[in-house]
Amino acid sequence: MSHDSTTATTTAQEAAARKLSGRRRREIVAVLLFSGGPIFESSIPLSVFGIDRQDAGVPRYRLLVCAGEEGPLRTTGGLELTTPQGLEAISRAGTVVVPAWRSITAPPPEEALDAIRRAHEEGARIVGLCTGAFVLAAAGLLDGRPATTHWMYAPTLAKRYPSVHVDPRELFVDDGDVLTSAGTAAGIDLCLHIVRSDHGNEAAGALARRLVVPPRRTGGQERYLDRSLPEEIGSDPLAEVVAWALEHLHEQFDVETLAARAYMSRRTFDRRFRSLTGSAPLQWLITQRVLQAQRLLETSEYSVDEVAGRCGFRSPVALRGHFRRQLGSSPAAYRAAYRARRPQQGEAPGSAAAKQPPEKPPVEPAPVPGPAEPLVAQSGPGPVPAQSRRAAAAATAHGPVATSVAAVPAGHQGRAQA
């Protein structure tokens, strides 16, 4: 979460603590498991909150493992799980964690949703890891709130629950008494954040050392996102417009052009596009152009100027600005880092040629501030766009990536920063 939201979050957490009902205890953590949930995500809160590590300076929690439905519960690899507790045990928990849900389209059991709603009404902190966010959304706990989930499922979450402010860029979102995380390993980030919120940096750092993970990861999910849109869009009339846009990224066109092709006003197109994809069309289009630039930088010998032209950017300066904002690196530095990690074709990974240090990338001018760019696909030189995007620090250290953006109301971003 961002540091500028720390005060607001602290206030919300204090309010939640004050209204916790008498039968609940903050140190009791209930983990709600369902059949069909993946074992990795399910095991994260069990490991963080269920093992006594007081010898390492980590305060102890009391763990209750609860079945959200009749068992036995089947998980990854055909394993069957039995839990020592049922839904009734949630009534004692100060924190309820839903680590996963088996289907992004199927509704969770109503009995489990009732138990989660009741826990929230009684002041419990409710946590959804990965697809567990769909359970929280089904319970109505994310209405009007910021939230995240695995980037692959974020568009579906936004479409199924339009009142949720879904941000697929974040590793986790802390909205006080309701918290959500991105997929898989991001659940560890959120659990460490909870320990940090409850017991301070020292305790969270000690736990991170025992888990052999960084106490805080920088950046968000954008380095892992791809260009995919939800499968549901395939039957929508906008699918043809989206396909056309992806096939013509090298051409100069803007969102008004896409709206016209869909026979819609710009306002209607924006609303319809966001409801289907969870992303604003302008941000989506910019992201696709950056993705295309990544591919050309990785696979071609085109200069940065040529790449800009072949991706619909109106100038190399515009490409550099958007590329740096989304990936935290210049195009030339990204190409150099990518090639340093991948030996030239025909060279063995351990060969002498492959071990040669890469040439330093040329120094590129920093983007020049200017008025907001109406769209990246215009001809001729012009000012650099001024979309407000957080740079993904050290993105080039993680290999070739792809990104996606969904607009989130101001003040609703929750970010994990070092």
From TrEMBL:
Keyword Cell division: no
Biased composition (Pro residues): 363-372
Entries under CDD domains matching the protein: GATase1_AraC_1 (cd03137)
Keywords of this entry: Membrane, Transcription, Transcription regulation, Transmembrane, Transmembrane helix
Chain intervals for the UniProt region annotation (Disordered): 338-418
InterPro entries in alphabetical order: Class_I_gatase-like, DJ-1/PfpI, Homeodomain-like_sf, HTH_AraC, INH-QAR
Record-annotated membrane-spanning stretches: 28-51
Keyword Transferase (UniProt): no
Residue intervals of the HTH araC/xylS-type domain: 239-337
Protein name stated in the entry: Helix-turn-helix domain-containing protein
Species of provenance: Streptomyces beihaiensis
Origin organism lineage: Bacteria, Bacillati, Actinomycetota, Actinomycetes, Kitasatosporales
